[in-house]
Write a structure and sequence with these properties.
Blueprint: H1 2-7, H2 16-56, H3 62-66, H4 68-73, H5 85-101, H6 104-114, H7 118-127, H8 136-143, H9 150-159, H10 166-171, E1 174-176, E2 182-184, H11 192-223, H12 226-237, H13 244-255, H14 260-267, H15 281-304, H16 310-317, H17 322-330, H18 335-350, H19 354-359, H20 367-376, H21 381-414
Antiparallel strand pairs: 1-2
Helix pairs in contact: 2-21, 6-7, 11-12, 11-15, 11-18, 13-15, 15-18, 16-17, 18-21, 20-21
Length: 415
Amino acid sequence: MNEAAASLVADDGVPLKLKLRRAERAHKLKSVAMIAPLFLFLLLSFVLPIGTLMYRSVDNPELHRALPQTVAALAGWDTQALPDEPVFAALVRDLRKAQEESTLGLASRRLNYEISGFSSLLTKLVRKLPPEGAGVRDAVIAVDERWGQLTYWRAIARAGTPLTSFYLLKAVDHRVNEAGDIESVPANEAAYVTVFGRTFWIALIVTLWALALGFPVAYLLATLPSGPSNLLMILVLLPFWTSLLVRTAAWIVLLQSGGILNGAMIGLGLIAEPLQLVFNRFGVYVAMVHILLPFMILPLYSVMKGISPAYVRAAVSLGAHPFLAFWRVYVPQTIAGVAAGCLLVFILAIGYYITPALVGGPDDQMVSYFVAFFTNRTINWGMASALGTLLLIATLVLYAVYGKLASSDANKARR
């Protein structure tokens, strides 16, 4: 039978088996060609930027560009005694060349991250660069006695590695000490763990308020007749047609001391003086909940729309209290929508920048504010990338937890 099939040929004399194989290969190539633009789009707009972000959080190119000979000379240094004469000579040559090529700022800024004041130390040496030759080590130390201390040379050695954990450790208030061990930074320098805690706390409160307000709205959307439901859906989607900046500015107008809300409460006699409702945490909560509320309502609505009201009516007909029937029969069927909405709102909230920056005070700024600060003001790409990478890791962890819970619920449903 197989021999007979193998001997079959098409009209053009090509074996039928070979022709089928060619047709299948052509079909696969067409399929790949059809998805290639999408794959390329995802690669260029998603994978490549995120990969670059993560790489920049550990990239350490400054001293390799500004002080290449010094870095190479320190490669075999044991860090237990001052470097030898050739290392000092390499430093002098590098500084002279960096001054000519205007790359000294790279080294100064990077070393200043390691030890505050290193920039002025380098500038002082550049102004009094000794000539190359015998005795260059003593001449450099004579310019400033700090060049005779191991602390500063160890900082150069740490900053001279091609990859570094400096930024990621600093983003969680840790550092590598002179002995090479990881330790916490002093209390007066610690800031980012508090910022991350504040970010997650604000995102959690916003998510809970969005759930509390969005659940009844989604329920109404799913249970009202089509006419009122469509009108309510338009009101839910209306914020998407307005600029985020405009919506945030509108809340500043509404909540400020001379705004509409304070004016109305004073006019009704509810308060005697205007309340501070903006440029604080309250303003951040109000504005963020308003902006993110549709992202909670829509997942809930999509799930609730598929729940038949007959289940609750059946429970009530069997003697259950209406509220108990709703809580025990209806609500458990909305868990998928609740989980999806909470996940979406929380992830969007931890990365918010414009709203907290405009309506919040100094103690209400989230991680995104510091990412923008390091990107736009201090041009510290490493620190900005490290903070962004940690936010990305937090997002991936949330997705993993959600996926685990979703798969567990699916397995229980099958049983």
